[in-house]
Specification:
Elements: H1 11-36, E1 47-54, E2 57-64, H2 69-76, E3 95-98, E4 101-104, E5 117-119, H3 121-124, H4 132-139, H5 149-164, H6 183-189, H7 200-213
Parallel strand pairs: 1-5
Antiparallel strand pairs: 1-2, 3-4, 3-5
Domain 2Fe-2S ferredoxin-type: 48-124
Pfam families: Fer2 (PF00111), Fer2_2 (PF01799)
Keywords: 2Fe-2S, Iron, Iron-sulfur, Metal-binding, Oxidoreductase
Length: 215
Amino acid sequence: MSPPIDFSLRRRTLLAGTAAAAVVAAATRNTAAAQGTGVPVSAGETKSSVTLVVNGRERELMVDNRVTLLDALREHLKLTGTKKGCDHGQCGACTCTVNGERINSCLSLAVMHDGDEIETVEGIGQPDAMDAMQAAFVENDGFQCGYCTPGQISSARKVIEEIRAGIPSHVTGDLTAEITLTDAEIRERMSGNICRCGAYANILAAITQVAEERA
């Protein structure tokens, strides 16, 4: 049998609760009355104008405030190279760069990036004029189904830049020394990009090849 609950109702608690209940009831009545008479209840603006500089080109959009940067790129601008995988920021298929930094575009709202410079895989290179990283992925068979590849390439290019800039990772040992481009460093920094086909060894080879060519 449960022990008895020691409970006492204080006058101040009773008055505060009664006042709060009255406010909620009044708001409910007002909303119901407005709906009953056909008067719209304002919920604020639901759309906003946003200007994105995508792959060097200024694009102005009118989007729902809830639209992610990923959906703005894919559905509004038809730049479908950036992929929607998990839509929870866990797979990295949606990786692109914003003002030079890689992000998961599925976790960021389009309206947060007014005036920002965004680069997608379409801006990195095309089949007839591939970037060095794209060419290395082809040469090293760094993909199978190819769905994660745009995000992998976007991340891979930034990984080399981060290491060269001296930005440490969780596996960086000596924070006072120059960071070397090791397999462990690359694997750790690319861990946010999942390849369900398991082409990790070839992806590592492609990144290493580009890093060595630029050394």
